[in-house]
Amino acid sequence: MRIFLDEFGIFLGRKRNRFVIKKEGEKKEIVADDVDSIICCSSGVAMSASALNLAVKNNIQVVFARYGGWPYAVLMPASMTGSVRARREQFIAYNDERGFILAKKFIAGKLVNQANLLKLMAKNRRQTNPALAERFYNAGKAIDETNGRIEKEHGLSIDEKRQQLMNIEAEGARIYWDAIKQVLPAELQFSGRETRGARDPFNAMLNFGYQTILFPEVWKAVSYAGLDFFAGYLHADRPGKPSLVLDLMEEFRQQVVDRTLIGLITKNVLKPNEILAVEVVEEGRVLSKETIKTLLTSFQERLDMKVMFNGQKASIKHFIYHQARCVVRFLLREGDYVPFCLGW
Predict the structure, then answer these.
(1) For residue 115, what pLDDT is reported?
(2) What is the pLDDT of residues 210-261, one digit of tens each?
(3) Do the domain assignments include residue 236?
(4) Which CATH number covers residue 229?
(5) Which end of the chain is more exposed for a tag (fewer CB within 10 A), N or C?
């Protein structure tokens, strides 16, 4: 489970092997063994050094994030797993065919998941709305065709071909979001994908899912695999930009975040007029407290859901860590890299 700290006045302390959460006279205790991560989104939260020490001893990731952006700090144990050799190969691979191949695989995984999600939506609407189902299916096939161009790209290093790959990815994204727009209520005012500072409900929820839920999970997986967060391939180098984490996230955005949100909206679990906060109590906070509570529960359930991939049945969360280890094996030339994709 996750401990989510998002209100002024919360104190996180420790009592032996339990975390103690206090606020305005109320107290809740949670056994450390039951906690996967602690996410703090408010500047008004206080934590004891003893509580942070308990988290480190139990390999519990502590994430400090802002509502309107990516996490700005992650606390993890100083000891790392994985081999030094893998990290050396990670840097060398940037200038040979391995970096280029991985970048292609990351984009291919994203495009296949986009196409398959649209085809699944078409399948579920075949009886109730045949016209919409056909549009979804055709959009999925169009993304398949776009993905076919990825395999035709050849190069010796990622720097030679990054722009071409990103152009193909952008074309797939345009088809995908234009299709998704057709199933969303008009009240959500979703005109297209917006990242920084999004104020409309659907983009705000997408950003919350990607930044606050998926990003820390992939960060942890990359750390446990012993790889460098910042030495990626698809995403260009920039100071402070965890490019490899962003690379690996591409395969999981649709299956963890997009699919969950579309289900919550289309099943009317989240009502358009109740998603945003009525009063902004903290800078950057857009979503209501009840919306965040629903999202946390739903994203956790999706991460824990068992799926079939590459002949193995396990949770999606398991496969995030599995894919990071597969990157290591590929870099060490011990196996091929197969992007995480789910069928429809």
Answers:
(1) 98
(2) 999 999 999 999 999 999 999 999 999 998 899 999 999 999 999 999 999 9
(3) yes
(4) 1.20.120.920
(5) N
Residues 133, 232, single domain; the answer is: yes
Domain-embedded: residue 70:
no
The string of pLDDT tens digits covering residues 321-343 is: 999 999 999 999 999 999 999 99
In a domain, 146, yes or no: yes
The count of structural domains within the chain is 2
Beta-strand runs (E) in 244-343: 306-309, 312-315
Structure tokens at 114: 């986009």
For residue 222, give the nearest of 67, 39, 76, 34 by alpha carbon: 76
Residues 283-289 have a mean pLDDT of: 80
Query: Strand pairing partners for 276?
Result: 287
Cα dihedral sign, 293-295-299-301:
positive
- Residue 80 has a pLDDT of 63
The tokens for 66 are: 């802002």
The residues facing 74 across adjacent strands are 63
Residue 310 DSSP code: T
Q: What is the CATH number of the domain that holds 35?
A: 3.100.10.20
- Residue of 280, 234, 227, 117 whose CA lies nearest to 183: 117
Check if the beta carbon of residue 63 is closer than 8 Å to that of residue 202: no
Kindly state whether residues 60 and 98 are assigned to the same domain: no
Note the pTM of the prediction, 2 decimals. Answer: 0.91
Burial 317-340 (b: 16+ CB within 10 A, else e): bbbbbbbbbbbbebbbeeeebebb
Residues 138, 272, single domain; the answer is: yes
Residue with tokens 């606050």: 212
With CA atoms as reference, report the closest residue to 269 among 298, 301, 304, 289. Answer: 298
Write the pLDDT tens digit of every residue in 5-51. 988 899 999 999 999 999 988 999 999 999 999 999 888 899 999 99
Domain that residue 30 falls in: 2-64
Strand partners, 73: 64
Q: What's the pLDDT band for 76 if we cut at 50, 70, 90? A: confident
Retrieve residue 80's tokens.
Answer: 């790392």
Name the phi and psi angles at 11, rounded to 5: -125, 130
Mark whether 148 and 48 lie in a shared domain.
no
pLDDT mean over 73-84: 79
